[in-house]
Amino acid sequence: MAGEYEDIACMVREFAEKEIREAVPEDDLYPDAGFREPLYSRAGEVGFLSLLLPEDAGGAGECPAALAEVLYELSRVDASVAAVVFCQAFAHSVLCAAGRADLAAAEGFIASTVYDDPLDLAGGLSAAEGPDGWLLSGSCEDVALGPVAASLLLPASTGDGTALFLVPVAEEVRLSEPLLTLGLRACPLCDVSLDAAPATLVASGTAALDAYVGSVALMRGPAAAISAGIAAGSFAEGLEYCRGRYQGYKLIIDHEQMRAELGRIRAEALASRELFRSACRDGGADGGSLGLTVQLLAGEMAARATTDGVQVLGGYGYCHDCGQEKRMRDAKQAQCFFGCKELMLQDLTAAALA
Amino acid sequence: METTITADRERETARAAPATPNVSNEAYRRKLERVDAPPLSEMFQGMNMLKHIDPKYFHEMERALERARRLAREEAAPLVLEVDRALQRDPEDLEPVWELVRLAGRAGMFSLLIPKRYGGAGLPLIASAVIWEELCSVCAGFGNLVGAHYLGYLPLYASMKLRTWEKVCREITATERGERPVIMSLSLTEPLVGSDHTEAELIPGAKIQSEATPVPGGYMLNGTKVFISNGSVSGYSLVIMPTDRTRKLETLTAFVVPASAEGFHVDRDEHKMGQKACPATVMVYEDVFVPESHRVMPVGGLAKVLDIMGPTRICVGAISTGIARGAYEKARDLAMTHTMRGRPIIQHQWAQVILSEMLMNVHTARATYTEAGYCDLAWGTGKSVPMVRGGYRMKQLADRAMDTEVAKRFTDDEDRVAALLDRVLAMKSVNVPMEAGYGSVAKVKCSDAAMINAALALDLAGKAGLRHDRGLEKVFRDAKLVQIYEGTNELNRLSFFQRFVAKMDPSIHVFDRE
Ligand SMILES: Cc1cc2nc3c(=O)[nH]c(=O)nc-3n(C[C@H](O)[C@H](O)[C@H](O)COP(=O)(O)OP(=O)(O)OC[C@H]3O[C@@H](n4cnc5c(N)ncnc54)[C@H](O)[C@@H]3O)c2cc1C
User: Fold this and answer.
1) Given ligand 1 and candidates B145, B189, B482, which is best to mutate, with the most ligand atoms within 8 Å of its CB?
2) What domain count does chain B have?
3) Which of the four pLDDT bands, split at 50, 70 and 90, describes residue B21?
């Protein structure tokens, strides 16, 4: 454990056991089950939803390293809850980087496009400035926290390039039904279409891009922490199951093959944990290459650790009652934060060439 | 210098270490030579096949493929995402499953292997492989719904209990195009026994809780079976239980049990990650009486049948190849219709390489299950039936012979049937370990290809692959199952090792107690 965050990690572990664990299977049925508002009221009270906000804006003023530890601990129990905290923190990070912490301090969730490639923004939205301010029109897919948000942080093209806007959810904002996704289901997504929706300009031109891309670079470590937490959960459940399951004349933990499999899962869980911590220590200082690397590798490790985690439990691993199949889906979904992993590889080489 | 020292040391170590504790080096070397250099007939099953091939075989396969393709692409494809969605909402509401059962029934999918004289299509098993691949390329759950039916049907067919077999066949064909087709399932797995059911050597240690107690006129079945594919929609289940729990290996046998049997009930369907169109059911038997005529395997016969698992594993190979292909096809389509950084995904070189890799995986997987299919035809217990030159005529003759009263009376005599099975297994031209080994190769390699392709598809698609409505994430959820059922891939690897590697030295232990 990174010593300086031990207190915070302890607190999160306690919170996760008390408030989250029991409801994980039910919450994972979203959108067929409800979104757990009361859980997030409590998460808000203990400060999980404003970790990166400066203290004078009502937040905890923590750094991404602390956020990552929180996400890691939450993901060991339920990565969907971690994803909600992550999305909110990302929006806060962008707003603060753009010098608009005041907007971040408003009540409620801020939806954003965390699954989009930061170098491929503003696909379907355009912004026009009228006498009463900016109006946004067009559509945007896969907006994270969209179904539960009070406002949407969206990129749109202004004619002069891409700008960032904050759009309150109002009459002119049409949200699709919540989407059913592969994983992180209880961190809701929807499509959005806007019909001249009033919006506040957050930043434009290079300031907008710098705020957005800079925040993505800072958040890659925390994204990796989600993957690492999922991998750790997969190991814990796998180990526990193998200690109790008897097959082939003995407890399956005593088959060398199972030990090898669990050993691999453990190695990936431990390595991904060390990776996210090193990325957070680095804080994006090398132009984001370490963050990219860490998100990429931790994501791959978690995907393997959870697929193997299902295998360790045999048929039970494939069923909803145990957590492994959810972890396998969550891990694959978490690999897609900030775009497709193949593009990350391209960017990593491009960074070396720059 | 460094290299020489290392090489010298390696040679020294090799000299010092005994090659095996109980065989002299010379004998061991000779043994290795034999094992290391298999004959052509063992290396290339396809060539074996060509020696015997019947030209009708190709046409039969072609017709089967066309039929399955029409059903899958034109009729099932528009439904399967909706069915998956409905079952995610409520896995216990079986109406969407029945809709697919009816669809498959109308296309004659449940009587493909049933002889023509009972109203079926009379296809050989190998032709069914192309059907599973085709159905599963559109939806693995749909394909498995049909496949699991044959998992129950095939042991019944192989049992040689002709009267019971005929009765069930006629019921399947009579209801197939109706509202509630009678289909089958196989009930083997129990809460405490999964992998332990897949190898005869493991059965003595298995914690089997079920029992079919002999009573006058038949048996009283008690026990719980879990994860039974098609369980809650099957009209008959082939149920495996020992007649004496203290002598499991010696008394495991199979019964055909109708869903209407008193004392049987479905406890629940599992809420599982994928392949939702094929329910996995918990089945409970409480004092279920089954008449003697419905015991379809000699008592203790299961151990032999487990060794003839090769063909079902080949089917899983085909199912898996279908999933790998479905992942490729959906990823390719998505790559043509979606852009990244201003260009269609398919125009990115990295995406082209991924798609190529996926399609290559499909080709190698198909070659693997086909090769295993040839192995089954060349060495399996069913070798003489459909595939030798002029085999179709022979098959018809054999079918007709099996329909006679003499044949039925013969198969009423269990001892004679058991003796016949023993004789077949002892034939030089039958090599059950090789057939089972190739079955494991197909099962493991094709299912790994399915999982690899499903993951690659999502890597290629990015966020567009994560939404249910695009169909790609479903392939990922569906794919994982094939690495688990029909023996986990790990158990299949061990089983393959036993049959292909450990056979060279009896001192190598695989499944023993210790
Ligand atoms: C959706 C679904 C459908 C199914 N359909 C059917 C069906 O129609 N009919 C039916 O009878 N069954 C069915 N099954 C059951 C399936 O065949 C079993 O799940 C499978 O055989 C594995 O058994 P298990 O789940 O009990 O896992 P376990 O046997 O408990 O295995 C757990 C882990 O231990 C490992 N392991 C077990 N034994 C050993 C050993 N000796 N050495 C080393 N490692 C070992 C396994 O590889 C695995 O990783 C289905 C299962 C599922 C999930």
Assistant:
1) B189
2) 2
3) very low
- Contacts of residue B248, defined as CB under 8 A and 6 or more positions apart, other chains included, come to B203, B204, B206, B208, B242
Q: Which of B144, B146, B195, B509 for mutating ligand 1's site (highest number of atoms within 8 Å of CB)?
A: B195
The residue to which tokens 């032709």 are assigned: B127
Cα–Cα distance, B120 to B138 (Å, whole number) = 24
Residues 135-164 on A with a CB inside 8 Å of B are 141-142
Beta bridge partners of B254: B240
User: Is residue A186 a contact partner of residue A30, using CB atoms and an 8 Å limit?
Assistant: yes
A353 inside domain: no
Nearest CA to ligand 1 atom 32: A314
Of B192, B455, B468, the CB nearest to A180: B468
Q: Is B319 near ligand 1, meaning CB less than 6 Å away?
A: no
pLDDT per residue as tens digits for the range B252-281: 999 999 999 999 999 999 999 999 999 999
Residue B490 CB less than 6 A away from ligand 1 = yes
Do the chains contact at B341 and A343, CB–CB below 8 Å? yes
Both tokens of residue B458?
């999502």
SS3 at position A322: coil
Query: CB–CB of B485 and A181 under 8 A?
Result: no
Distance of alpha carbon B55 from the chain centroid: 26
Query: Which residues constitute the domain of residue A297?
Result: 209-348
Domain containing B449 — which CATH number?
Answer: 1.20.140.10
Instruction: State whether the beta carbon of B148 lies less than 6 angstroms from ligand 1.
Output: yes
Cα(B498) to ligand 1 centroid in Å equals: 19
Is B162 within a domain? no
The pLDDT, as a whole number, for residue B430 is: 72
Instruction: Give the model confidence (pLDDT) of A251-278 as tens digits.
Output: 999 999 999 999 999 999 999 999 999 9
Asked whether A133 lines ligand 1 (CB < 6 A), one says: no
Distance of CA B227 to the CA centre of its chain: 15
Is A316 within the bounds of a domain? yes
Q: Whose CA is nearest to atom 2 of ligand 1?
A: B227
Q: In this structure, what CATH number is given to the domain that contains residue B286?
A: 2.40.110.10
Chain B positions touching A179 (Cβ under 8 A) are: 467-469
**What CA–CA distance (Å, rounded) separates B205 from B210?**
14
Query: Does residue B322 belong to any structural domain of this protein?
Result: yes
Q: In the structure, what pLDDT confidence band is assigned to residue B476 with cuts at 50, 70 and 90?
A: very high
Domain span including residue B277: 184-304
> Of B140, B175, B450, nearest to B278 (Cα)?
B140
Whether A354 maps to a domain, the answer reads: no
Per DSSP, what are the bridge partners of residue A164? Answer: A155, A203
Max CA separation in chain B (angstroms): 82
Q: Are B171 and B110 in contact (CB under 8 A)?
A: no
d(CA A341, CA B33): 47
Please, are residues A127 and A194 in contact by the beta-carbon 8 Å criterion?
no
Residue in A with minimal Cα distance to B462: A340
Residues B266 and B368 in one domain: no
Q: Please give the backbone phi and psi of residue A220, each rounded to the nearest 5 degrees, phi first.
A: -70, -35
Closest by CA position to B362, among listed B453, B430, B289, B301:
B453
Domain count, chain A: 3
Give the total residue count for chain B.
514
Domain-ending residue, one of A108, A126, A156: A108
Indicate the residue of B89, B193, B460 with minimum beta-carbon distance to A32: B89
Confidence tier at B300 by pLDDT (50, 70, 90): confident
Closest residue on chain A to B269 (Cα): A319
Residue of minimum CA distance from atom 27 in ligand 1: A314
> How much helix, strand and coil, in percent to the nearest 5, is found in chain B?
65, 10, 25
Which numbered atom of ligand 1 lies nearest the CA of B152?
Answer: 8
